[in-house]
Write a structure and sequence with these properties.
Largest sheet: none
Distance between the termini: 16 Å
Structural class: mainly alpha
Radius of gyration: 19 Å
Order of helices and strands: HHHHHHHH
Number of strands: 0
Oligomer: single chain
Strand content: under 5%
Number of domains: 1
Helix content: over 70%
Shape: globular
Length: 247
């Protein structure tokens, strides 16, 4: 029987996960994701790329940006990854006697997850270099990697990658389209909110605005987006795992 990703079931399951774990989700996301994003947005200027059609220029600009700001970007990125991974573990369905168990397990799988993500990242980049379409497809297939490695921590690096590929079989494009829909919707809301806050801050404080407040709004929506993706991808993994025969 062919696999099928039911978007309505994903939405329903994600809402259920949020309701069941909201007491832990909000403080974890607030500290590890919101605070890191707020600090990063306040201290680091936004990345601006003039010509996205030139792949070499895009890579060069991103490299220069990271080289100039790595002292802020690297630690905030690692903190964000750890916080997100803790949320994945929390909602993975693994038996946890307390929230602290999620922190301990996410610390144990943190390095294997980073290594697996690097391997997947290189594979995705190679796909993008091959006329973009393969890269988009690979992105969809490997999107549930953190959900898989959090739920089945004993698989190891190569095992988690293989398991992710197995679970997402036949549903790579469906996962990608869901991710794009959620990302676009949240970015539109964030853009509207950010523009409104900037306008108010400039009206109060002049052209310079109130950077710390504006950065806080960016951090808030970064946290909302991160939590939304965690909920969505955990739900996707749960649904597709139920349709996948373990090999």
């Amino acid at each position: 029987m062919a696999k099928k990703l039911d978007y309505r079931a994903v939405w329903s399951d994600a809402r259920g996960l949020l309701a069941a774990h909201k007491e832990a989700i909000f403080p974890i996301a607030g500290f590890f994701i919101f605070m890191a994003a707020w600090i990063s947005a306040f201290l680091v200027p936004p990345l601006l790329i003039d010509n996205i059609d030139d792949t070499n220029q895009v890579i060069t600009e991103i490299s220069r940006y990271f080289e100039s700001n790595w002292r802020v970007l690297l630690p905030t990125m690692l903190v964000t990854i750890y916080g997100s991974l803790t949320l994945y573990v929390l909602m993975s369905g693994r038996p946890l006697s307390k929230v602290g168990d999620a922190f301990a397990l996410s610390a144990a799988i943190f390095v294997p997850y980073l290594l697996a993500s690097l391997i997947v990242g290189w594979a995705t980049l190679a796909g993008f270099m091959l006329f973009i379409i393969p890269g988009l497809y690979v992105s969809g297939r490997f999107a549930i990697l953190p959900a898989v490695i959090s739920r089945e921590a004993g698989l190891g690096i190569s095992g988690s990658i293989k398991r992710t590929w197995q679970i997402s079989t036949e549903c790579g494009w469906a996962i990608l389209f869901l991710m794009l829909f959620v990302a676009v919707a949240l970015r539109i809301l964030a853009g509207i909110a950010n523009a409104a806050v900037v306008a108010v801050c400039q009206a109060i404080a002049g052209e310079g605005g109130v950077p710390i407040v504006e950065s806080g709004v960016k951090g808030l929506f970064a946290a909302v987006e991160a939590v939304s993706f965690v909920l969505m991808l955990v739900a996707v993994n749960r649904q597709l795992s139920a349709q996948t025969v373990t090999q």
